[in-house]
Fold this protein.
Amino acid sequence: MNIFFGNQSLNIPRYVQNMFIIGFMYYLYILECADQTLYTGITTNPERRLKEHNEAKAGAKYTISRRPVKLVYSRKFRNRSLASREEAKIKKLDRKEKLKLINL
């Protein structure tokens, strides 16, 4: 796919083209930490992100000291903006409300 920018043609890599054709799905997720606290985030790959939280330095600062974590909730969104908005709403909920959401 070529995109024209003024007089220049930009060659777009195949993986970027696929993002526009197929679209990236974003996932909102909630983790339960070893200390029973809840952590909310978004990602394009829940399995990879869970592994990062449990094993890698790429895990969030919050979860690094609260391992192991387990995935207790996820929801799919068609774009990052929608997932981020829902993440912000969930982060404002108290623990009781989050647990109610998880048990739906």
Notes: The mean pLDDT is 87. DSSP finds five helices and five strands in the chain. The radius of gyration is 17 Å. The first helix runs from residue 14 to 21.
